[in-house]
Each structure stands twice: as C-alpha cells, then as structure tokens.
Amino acid sequence: MISRRMFIRSVFGAGIGVLLTGTYSRFLEPRWVELKHITIKINELPHRFEGMTIAQLSDIHHCQYVPREFVRRCVREVNALSPDIIVLTGDYVYDPYSYSASTFLLPVADELAELKAKEGVFAVLGNHDNKDRTSGALSKSGIHVLINEHIVLYRKKEYLFIAGVDDLWRGKMDLRRTLKGTDDKPKILLAHNPDAIMTIKTTGVDFVMAGHTHGGQVSLPLYGPPVVYSKFGARYAAGLFREERTMMYVNKGIGISGFPVRFCARPEITLFTLRNKRTEEVVGRI
Ligand SMILES: [Fe+2]
Questions:
Q1: Which of 50, 68, 104, 159 has its CA 20 to 30 A from that of 281?
Q2: Residue 20 counted as domain residue
Q3: Is there a domain that residue 112 lies in?
Q4: Gap from CA of 46 to ligand 1 centroid (Å)
Q5: 8 in a domain, yes or no?
C-alpha cells in the first residue's frame, strides 16, 4: 500500500512534469526552428539545374501567438541560405476574416517582402487565406502567387516548370489548368494540402511541396500525432513521401493554429537541393 508521503511526492512530481511540459510546449518549442536539408533526385533534371536550391517556408499563421518578430527572424534565416528560389506554401495568418488586413495580413506580407532569392519567390494559398486579399498583399510584396497556374523557369535554353494549385479545401484546385501547356520537362508543384497527392500523382508531377498539417503540432513519443487535419490521418503528417513517380515533402510550418503549442513537432525551414537522378545513379555505380 502506498504511503501518504509517497502519494504526495508522486502528485508533486507529476505536477512539476506537467508544468515543465506545458512551459516547453507553449513558450520554447514553438520558437525552436529546425533547419532541414533535403536532397531531391529528379529524373531528367536539366544539367543547368543540377544543385539548384529551394527554400520552403510554410504555415506562418501570423497572429497574437506568432509575432511579427518571429516571422522576421525566420525570413532572415531563409535569406542566410542564399537559395535560388523560395517557396511559400500557404496559411499566412490564422484568421483572415475577423481582423482587418492591417492587423496581421499586411504586416506579414511586409516581412515576406524582405525574402531574397536569385530566381524568384513563389507562393500558393492555404485554407486560412482569403484569395483576393492574401494574393493581393503577397503580390504587392513582389511574390509570385500561383493559383492553378505555372511559370517556366529558364537557365539559358534549359528549363523546368514551377506550378501552384489553389487550396484543396477552401479553393478550387484545378490540376489540368495548372499543367496545361507543360511538356515532359521536370515539374515542381506547390500545393498547400498534402491530401491533394492522390490526384497529383496521376499527372506526371515530379516533386510536390506541401504544408498544412503542422506535423500534427503535438506528436506523442512512440505514438505520433493524435490529431492531423487530413482525411488520411497521420499518414502525411510530415516528411518525405513517394506516391508512384511523384515525390512529396510535407513541411511542418513555422506557425501554430488552434492551441498555441507545439510538442515534438518543431517549426521548420527546409532547404532542398535538386539532383539529377540518373547522374547520381551513374556516380553511385562507379
Ligand atoms: Fe496551417
């Protein structure tokens, strides 16, 4: 039988544990940004794009819990990587409807205007974005917003495609329109919601960059995230996936939504390096 003293000690210990975990989740982990380096191998990547770098920022959710100073710090960290292009994969504020644009949207757009990439900054919208207001604010910041469209990125006479789709939940995702006019050159697609992979994988896209899940925001050791806003549960919560010939990376984002906590789901900035898959295989055999 447990003594009264042991019981009091156990309750006290548990209380301290909850307090420390709560403090860590609320104040420390949401600001503890992880920088990830990922190599993506693409079939037939043109020679001039070998080693191209892409920095991804996602799910900023600027609000009272994700302050402007934190967004500024993340922008500086991205610029310090000197990427060739920068991509933003949606959800720039938490609540696009209850506040005027000057409260959160315009300030976050002003911070994002400081992003510097040699060949452009590209963005798609998420389910927390207002199509007209958000795309207008981002465009004024010099960011190319892709809503069911693509651009051709040239290096001399070689090229690849950078495309972006409207959000799967809030917008009208139209892959046919997005990829109309593309040929067999590599296609990189921005899509806020990773659930879109089920449609995208049939279209010949090489690499998808997504966000939306926040890695669940709370992930339990040995269990994973109990809640992920996806019809596939935790399947695409975070990380690199392959579906048929399409690779997809799901970024945990830097902001928070719902409860203002993160636990075992650190905010992240990701830097991708593109490599030609065939060249890599030949080098590997030698
Ligand atoms: Fe989000």
A1: 159
A2: no
A3: yes
A4: 33
A5: no
Task: Tell me the whole-structure pTM to 2 decimals.
Answer: 0.94
Which residue is listed with tokens 């060949």?
Answer: 119
Q: Which domain holds residue 253?
A: 32-285
User: Tell me, what's the pLDDT at 282?
Assistant: 56
Give the mean pLDDT of 133-145.
Answer: 98
Confidence label for 281 from pLDDT (cuts 50, 70 and 90)? low
Query: pLDDT: is 283 or 191 the higher one?
Result: 191
* Average pLDDT, integer, range 142-152: 98
Q: Tell how far the Cα of 126 is from the centroid of ligand 1, in angstroms.
A: 7
Compute the distance from residue 165 Cα to the ligand 1 centre, in Å. Answer: 16
CATH of the domain at 212: 3.60.21.10
Give me the number of domains the chain comprises: 1
Confirm whether 92 is domain-assigned: yes
- Share above pLDDT 90 across residues of the chain, in percent, rounded to a whole number: 86
CA 130 to ligand 1 center in whole angstroms? 13
